[in-house]
Amino acid sequence: MLTGERATFAYELQGGDREVAGRATFLNRDFRIEEDLGATHPDLLVLIAYLGAAPWIGGVLECNVAASPSFARAVEEALSTHIVTVDPDQAPREAPENARPGLAYSGGADCSAALAVLPAETGAYFLDRIPREDGEWKGLYSKAAAHHACEELTRRGYLVRRVSTDLEFMRQPVGFPDDLSNVIPALCCADRDGLDAVGWGAILESTYRIGSKKFRDYDASPFVRTYGPVFEAVGLGVVNAVAGVSEVGTAVISHGSGFGDVVQSCMRGDVGKPCLKCWKCTRKVMLDSSLNGVWPAPDMLDELCGNREAKMRLTEDPIKHEGVVAFSVNRYDQSSGGSEIMGALQDKLATYDVEFLQRHYSPALDFMPPRYRDGVMEQLNDLLGPMTDEEEEVIRNWNVADHQSARRERGQERLRQILSSEEQH
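^ DUF6395 domain-containing protein, sequence as received from the core. Prediction below:
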């Protein structure tokens, strides 16, 4: 329903739909976007509707807005979902001339690195969470740092739009319905701003799964295999500019590109004051320290690694983003007596030699739209440099199972003992 400066997307379950998908329950059956979408192409509206409820849709989507036949075919072929309402006379959306890319932006290091290597006219689109009108705001999430980043980028001349929506309250627990749902603000503005591509701060650890157990080629990811053709059907290529860049590399780029005073990945702290009590803070502090050579005092480092979320993540096997954690902890100097936790982590991750994560995996650029590929490649080569053929081979053969050892087991056991002892105190 489109009413002036607001759009409401409401859903009714039908045969085949799910109320629970994975860990997410379809709690609320509608969401609103505080934008005037009256002039938005119907295919974009249907795509927004799909992304708003993707996990729970059972293979059929019927809307009160009719899609173009070509878009409906793309959704059927790529997402195995039948669009019921189709207008045979509706032309598909085409990107205008002199178009620009749009980026799903959060204010963190990864998307800031993507913005740094994309063209200067790239639009940054922030999904501005607001509470439901029949609910209240709960949780630790804070928008302060992200709002500050948006304001600062605007001051520097970037096109930045904050799109207010209660989309994340559709599900329980609160969050994006689909991993790609945070692109909805860019879709809302695609016609107004003349977008011909959309991108995310998706990094090597997620696109190629080297942050998980085993390498997966990028062309098997949702960005390429499933959603890729659907975005193409609405005139939007996928420009994941840092798809071949590790979290190590995005830290190098974001802090060396002039965004260092803007970037803050923590979503709980205030401006310039990350909470230092979440897993993201733990990982980012260790990474930044490993790059600048200035580490917190041992007791402060143990406290940082001993927060509830960090304990859970660091004792996992494998650790989430294990290569990045290995890069950080193996640069920590224990020679003068330091953090006991870091010592145990060094034992656990001793088999890794991942200094090359400071460079970019250039095969990822093959999936970039040609219009933007050369410019992004030039920026990445200048800021990071490409991996060698041998280093690319390490990426393609990535398998955490190759890093099992007796020393790792001793480090893991020691780590559990240390963190368990701290918990008791």
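The CA atoms of residues 140 and 165 lie 18 Å apart.
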